[in-house]
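Handover notes (outgoing to incoming on-call)

Open items:
1. Penicillin amidase: sequence verified, structure written out, both below. Nothing else pending on this one.
2. Nothing else urgent.
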Amino acid sequence: MIRRVLVVVLAVLALVVLVPAVGAGGFLLWMREQAPAYSGSASVPGLDRPVEILRDRHAIPHIFAATERDAYFALGYVHAQDRLWQMETMRRGGAGRLSELVGTRFGDWALRLDRSMRTLGVYRRAEAIYEDMPPDVRGAFDSYAAGVNAWLETHTEALPIEFQLLRHTPEPWRPADSVVWGKLMALQLSGNMYDELFRARALQSLSPQQVQDLFPADPPGAPVTLAAELQGMDLKRALAALPDLGFDTASNEWVLTGKRTTTGKPILANDPHLGLEAPILWYLARIDTPNHSVAGATIPGVPLTILGHNRTVAWGFTTTHSDTEDLFIEKIDPQDPTRYITPDGPKPFDTRTETIKVAGQPDETLTVRETRHGPVLTSPDLAGVAPEGHVLALAFPGLTARDTSPEALYRLNHAADAEAVREALFLHVAPQQNVVYADTGGTVGFLSPALVPVRRAGDGRVPVPGWTGEYDWVGYIPFDALPQAIDPPAGQFVNANNAVVGPNYPYLLGSDWPDPARAQRIGQMLEKDRFSVEDVVSQQMDTLSLPARELLPLLLTVPPDGKQMAEALDLLKGWDGRMVRDRPEPLIFDWWQRELVRTLFADKLGTLFLPYWDLRPRAVQHVLTEAPQWCDDITTPAKESCAVALAGALKSALAQIERRHGPTMASWRWGNEHKADLTHRLLGRIPLLNQMFDLTIETDGGAFTVNRGTTRVRDPQNPFAHVHGAGLRAVYDLSDLDNSRFMIATGQSGNPFSPHWGDLVSRWRDGGTLRLSGDRGALAADGARLFTLVPRDPGKSS
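Penicillin amidase C-alpha cells:
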C-alpha cells in the first residue's frame, strides 16, 4: 500500500513541480473537474418525485422536495457528493474495519481502534438499534441510504482522491452505517473510564489528599481509596490501550427569553467544541418540504439535523460530563475459566468471535466476552492489565442494544413546540447532553436527558469489584428528576460544561466538572438587560480569559531576575487577559503556565505526569494559596519555595519562546504558535500533498475563553497549536428563524481541489456568519446553482 501511495505522490510531484506549468495546470484542472456537479440534473433510482437542490455561493444545499422521504434521499446524495471519504472513515471506524484500508504500515493505530470497536460491539449495537426503530424513523434512515447509494451508482466524476490513493471502492451504504456515528459520539463524550483509570493509577502512588490536590474542583467528601484487590492492576497499560476518540470537554450554549432580547423573542446561541480537522465534522444544509422544514448543522453519514431549527423550534447541545461509565473488575471462576463470579454464583461469559481483516497481512481473530455489566476489555492490547484471575468490564448505557437516541433526534427535528422537545428528549439514552431550546411562542427550556446510573454504593471515580454486587447499578435517575427547567426568572440559561446541579441535588451526576470560567464569562456578558442577534454573535467570539485575570496577581508576585524577565513581567502587568493573536502577552502567560505545571507536578507524578500535563489554572492556584508543599522539587536536597518555582518556570518559558521566535519580545505573537490545526487526516501525512491542502490559520482565544482555542501543551513540537474548538457556531433568532446565523470552520466540500474546500476558514476565524434561508427565486437571484434529481422509475420506490 505504501508503494501505491508513493507512486501516486511521485506522479503528482512530477506533474506539479517537474513538468512545465501547462502540465501542472492541466493536472489541477483535471482534478478540479472531478468535483461534483452543482448544476444540471441526474436521473437516479429510488426517488419518488423530482427534488431541486439549490447550492448557494458557499455550496450549502437548500433542498426543496415534495416529501420528507425524497428530502432525506437528497441529503444522502449531497453528503456523498461532498464528503464521501469522511463518511467512509466514520462507518469503518465504528465497525472496526479501518485496518482493511490502511493495515499497519502507518503504525498500529487502526488495528488497535478496530480491536476496541469490535470488543465494545459498536456496530452490532447500531444494527440492533436500526432494527428496533419505528417505521417513520427507519424510513428516514432508509431513504438517506438510498440517496447515498444513488450517487455511488450514477456519479460520473471520479471518486474522491483518498479512494484513488488507496485504490479503494466503497461498499453500498447501509442504514446502520448512519446509526454508528451516534455510538461513536456517545463513547467520545462519556469518557469517564479514562478518568477512573487515571485516578486509580494515581492512588497507587499518591495519597487521597494529593489526588484531590491535582483536581481541586472535586467536591469535599471522604477520600477515595482503591480497593485492595485492585492494587495489582497494570493501570498504565490499561490507559495506553484504550482508544483515543478525541477530546470530550466541549461546547458553549445560552438562551435568552424574549424579555432579555431586542426582538421580544428568544435568542439561542450554541457552539460545540470538538477536534479540529479538514474538512470539519459539520456540514450545513437546509431541507424544505410542505410539511417539514429544518436547517442547521448535519453530519455527513447521518440523515438528521444534529443542531439547528425547524419552523418553530431551535435547540443546542453541550456535554454534561456526568459519570455514566463504570469499570468493573470481574473475578473469573477458578474452577471454570469460561465463567465469572456473581453474587448469585458463577455465570458463563457471553462469547463471540470477531475476525479483523488487515490489509497486507493475515486476518486477526479476536475472542470477545461480555458479563452482566458489559463488554470485557480483552484484546492483545489489554492482556494482563487486570490482576491475575480477573478481567475488566465496561458498564455504559450507550452500549445497550435498546438505545432510542436516533428516534429522540428524529422527534426533536420534528418538534412543534417546547413541550414536544421535552417529549422527544425522553427517548435519549447517551451521551448525556445539556439541551437548551426555545420555540417561537417564547418558551425557553433546559434539560439534561440520558440514562444516568444510580449506584448501590460508590461514586464511580475508580474501578470497583464486580463479583460482590456492592457497586452494581440499581436503576437510572428518573426522567422527571433529571436537571431541567423552563422560562427561568433570570431570563437566561447558560452552560459551558460547568456543573449543572449543586450539592443538594438528590442523585449523583458526577464528581469532576470542567473549569467554569467560560460559563462565568458568558454570565458577565449577559449582565445588561437586552441583546440583539448581533450582540450574541459577537459574544461567541469573546477572548477574555478569566483564569488569566485570577491567576496573574499570584504569578506577578515573583521578583524579576534579569532584564528579560523584568520586561515580560511588565508586559503581563499591563495585560487585560484577552487572548488575541497579535500580542505577546498570551504567549508568555500560557507558556509560563505550561512550565509551571511541569515544575510543580512532574517530579511527584513521574510517569503519571504526561497524561496529566495540561494548563491547570485551578490546580496551580490551589498550590500557590493552599498547598505550597507542591512547590518543592523532591529531586533536589534543597527545599524550594513557590517563589523559586515561579521564577524557574518563567525563565524556562522565556528561553523556549526566544529559541523559537527570537530575542525581541515585542515581536512575539500568540498567533505565531496558536494556529487552528485544520489539516486532512490522510493527505496531511503525505509529503507535498500535506502542504497543498493545509488550511491552518492563526486564531484568537485560548483553552478558557468563550472563543475556545484549546491546545495540547504536552506536544513538544507544537504545544500551543489550536487543536480543539468551535468548528460550528450558530445563533438562532426565534422572532425570525430565517435570520439565524451559522458558520463552520473549513468549507462544505471534502475535495481539496474544490473552491469550497476552505472558503470559510477566514470568515470562521474572524466571526463571520451565514444565513440558511431564501425561497427558490431569492436563492437563484443571488447566484445559487440548481441541480435537479429526477426519478428514474417514478412511483416504484414507495
